[in-house]
C-alpha cells in the first residue's frame, strides 16, 4: 500500500512561478494592474477570443455575466444539474428560476436536443458545461440559441486548453474559465470571462469593479484614477496582479501540463481495461481536444457489491484521494427542501450522481502513482468491503 496520501488534485507550482509572484509582491502594486491586463491579452491570444475580463473567481464572473444580461425574477435559465453548485446558486440569487437539463449518461455532457426540450418563452440564458475537459457539441447548441435568440454562456471552468473541432473553447461566444487551484491552470483563486459581444464585456468589466467606468489601475496615475464615478452599482470581483502573474506563468505551461494529463489518462485506461466494476466516463465522438481536467469513473454498484461512499472511504484508507464531480445540484438539501426538486427529474444525471468519482489526476503525478491508484481500486473491489448495501 502507498505510504503517502495521494490527493485527487494538486496545483503544479514551479520555482519560476514563485519567483514571478515574489516579483509582484515586491513591486509596490499587488492588486489589479498591468499583470491582469497581460493575462487577459495572453488568454485572448491562446483562445483567439476578441476580449477578456479577469475576475476573482469563475463564480464572480458568472454573477456579473448574469447581471449584465439582466437576469431577474420571472426569468428561466437552463443549466445542467450535473455541475458545480455556484451556477445554480447565482441563478437563484438573481431571483430567476433554474431549469435543469439532463446530460448524456456516458459523456456527462448536455446537448442541443436535451436543451431544446426545456426552452420556453421565459428562457433568458442557457449555461451548458464543457465537462471534465472535453467539449460540448457547440455547433448545434449555438444554432439552437441563435434561432431562439437566447444568450449562451459556456461554463468553461474545466476547459482551459480544450478545443472543439479546430478551435479553442472561448474563441467565440461567451465563456467563463476558472483558475481555482484544482483546475488545469491556477491563479490561486481566479477566473476569466471571454466574449465577442463588446458591449456585454464592457458591462461585465464595469460590474466586476464597483460599477466604476474604469478598471482598478490607471497607467498614467500609476494607481487608481481618483476621479472615477459609479455608472451603476457593481460588485468587487477584480483579480489581483499577484494572482494574475501566477496565471501568466501557468498559461505558458498549459499545453505541456495538459499533455501530461492526457498521458496519465492513457495509462489509467490501459490499467483499468477489464476491471468490469469501473466504468470510465467516455469522450464524445465529435472532433475535440480533451484537456483532461478530471479523470471520472463510475462504480457499477451492483457488480462491486458496495456503494460509492464505501468505495471512496476504502480508497482513502489505502491513501488514495478521490473527489465527486458532481453531486446533482437539484438533490442538494436547499434545492430539495426549499425549491421542491426531487429524484426522478433527471434520470441520467441521478444515475451518475450516485456513482461518479474522480480518481487522482494532476501534472506532477507519475505513472507509478497511477499504478498505485489502480492497485488500490482492485484491492478494494476484491475485498468486497462493507458488503452489499
Ligand atoms: C470550479 C467550477 C466553477 C467555479 O469556479 P470558481 O473559480 O471556483 O468560482 C464553476 N463551474 C464548474 C463546472 C466548476 O467546476
Key words describing this protein structure:
three-stranded parallel β-sheet; globular; alpha/beta; Aspartate Aminotransferase, domain 2; binds pyridoxal-5'-phosphate
> How do the SSEs run, as a string of H and E?
HHEHEHEHEHEEEEEHHEEEHHHHEH
The number of helices is 13
Bound molecules: pyridoxal-5'-phosphate
State the separation between the terminal residues, measured CA to CA.
Answer: 26 Å
Strand percentage: 5-15%
Structure description:
The chain is α/β, with parallel strands linked by helices and 389 residues long. The chain has 2 domains: 15-252, Aspartate Aminotransferase, domain 2 (3-Layer(aba) Sandwich), CATH 3.40.640; 254-385, Aspartate Aminotransferase, domain 1 (Alpha-Beta Complex), CATH 3.90.1150.10. Helices cover 38% and strands 13% of the residues. The chain contains 13 helices and 13 strands. The protein has helices at residues 15-25, 34-47, 58-68, 85-93, 112-116, 138-148, 198-207, 241-272, 301-304, 308-317, 333-337, 347-353, 367-383, and strands at 52-55, 76-80, 97-101, 123-126, 153-155, 163-164, 167-168, 174-178, 191-195, 278-280, 288-289, 295-299, 356-359. A 4-stranded mixed beta sheet has the order 1-9-8-5, with helices on both faces. The longest helix has 32 residues, at 241-272. The protein is globular. The two termini are 26 Å apart. The model has no long low-confidence stretch (mean pLDDT 96). Bound molecules: pyridoxal-5'-phosphate (PLP). Pyridoxal-5'-phosphate binds at residues 57-59, 83-84, 86-87, 129, 155, 157-158, 178, 180, 191.
